[in-house]
Design a protein that fits this description.
alpha/beta, Barstar-like_sf, globular, Barstar, single chain, four-stranded parallel sheet, about 140 residues, Barnase, Chain D
């Protein structure tokens, strides 16, 4: 299970005092606040809205829609990993200091589809690890 984002929270993640990772968003911080802080810090942010998502197919459809994946996205776990390892679809607006992926309603999704949530979290973790040593890291906050 992913741990809670430690203090100082989102600002620490964005300024580098907390290493990029997959963290749970603290209840004292909100997705809109994190998106706003990311923009102020020259990080690109995207929100994956999981309300009503109860399985793999819906998760992948929602990911494609909310994250605006390219047309080549194949709507399977391998294609999700491919999109998260190749952020060219997200980098088309110029340089960013980092990339922040936030989810909303992770807990209901995780309860409805625990196996799919574990698979998705593993893919997110692999992607974060891949980008960790690069110029613009990827971080994920599960909210």
């Amino acid at each position: 299970m992913t741990g809670l984002l430690p203090a100082p929270g989102v600002p620490g993640l964005l300024n580098g005092s907390i290493p990029p990772g997959v963290y749970r968003l603290p209840p004292t911080e909100s997705v809109p606040l994190a998106v706003s802080l990311a923009a102020e810090s020259d990080w690109r942010a995207a929100v994956l809205r999981l309300k009503g998502v109860t399985g793999k197919a819906a998760f992948l459809d929602q990911s494609a829609s909310d994250l605006e994946f390219p047309a080549w996205f194949g709507k399977n776990w391998d294609a999700l990993a491919d999109c998260l390892m190749d952020l060219s679809w997200w980098r088309n607006e110029g340089k960013a200091r980092g990339y922040l992926l936030l989810t909303e309603d992770w807990d209901p999704f995780s309860k409805a589809a625990p196996k799919d949530a574990r698979t998705a979290e593993a893919i997110l973790t692999e992607a974060v690890d891949y980008w960790a040593d690069r110029e613009a890291p990827l971080a994920v906050l599960l909210g």
